[in-house]
Amino acid sequence: EEAGPGRRGERERSEEGSAERGPGAAFHMFVLMEDLLDKLKLLSYEEEALRRHNMRPLSRHYFALPTNPGEQFFMFCTLAAWLISKAGRPFEQPQEYDDPNAVISNVLSELRSF
């Protein structure tokens, strides 16, 4: 596989950065995702958020591996909206075909107001 312009240098910098942080740095995102999933389960996300939207439960590595960016983004937005509502703020649930920039802007705006 040929590296495109600039790709080789990016990969080398990435590998150097991982080496500077230690051998476990590459797996840190997996640990964070498992921690996130444990916290969501404590908040009963499966019953309260997923069933309402007819969605499947998250896998242990759902956000750690880029598999389907559109689906993952929508799941993130759904969970963010649910968490904001759970915190006592009214927040409209984003729809799958809403403008991603507008959705993120709304989420960030609401989080800044906390």
UniProtKB/TrEMBL annotation:
Keywords: Cell projection, Cilium. Residues 1-22 are annotated as: Disordered. Its main location: other. Pfam families: IFT57. Residues 1-19 have a biased composition (Basic and acidic residues). GO terms for biological process: intraciliary transport; non-motile cilium assembly. It is found in: Cell projection, Cilium. One of its GO terms (cellular component) is Golgi apparatus. Belongs to the IFT57 family. This is Intraflagellar transport protein 57 homolog. It comes from Platysteira castanea. The lineage of its organism: Eukaryota, Metazoa, Chordata, Craniata, Vertebrata. The gene is Ift57.
